[in-house]
Amino acid sequence: QVQLVESGGGLVQPGGSLTLSCAASESISSFNAMGWYRQAPGKQRELVASITNGGNINYAASVKGRFTISRDNAKNTVYLQMNSLKPDDTAVYYCNAKRISWSGAHDYWGQGTQVTVSL
What we know:
- The protein is mainly β.
- The chain has strands at 4-7, 10-12, 18-24, 33-39, 46-52, 57-59, 67-72, 77-82, 91-101, 104-109, 113-117.
């Protein structure tokens, strides 16, 4: 059973920074892609950033230039560096691991970590 454990969330003032970490229970190289999603109250879960095994990176337009996703294969950990945070970034942030096999795409999720941007 794949386990993804997020950490690093918290309360931060507008303009501040946070770094989220996602530690996987197995080699992240075994997944086709790793990503971060977020879900604000009353809204659907949305993609924030993703990084493939080949290093291709994708960002949501709302975070481009402010957030940076990275991976450390040796530590089986994915990071999300968040700068210039805005109140609209307030959400529960979820780590995602995607594995594509002959049987289809399989998504694995962490439990989520709360990020609150407020004065």
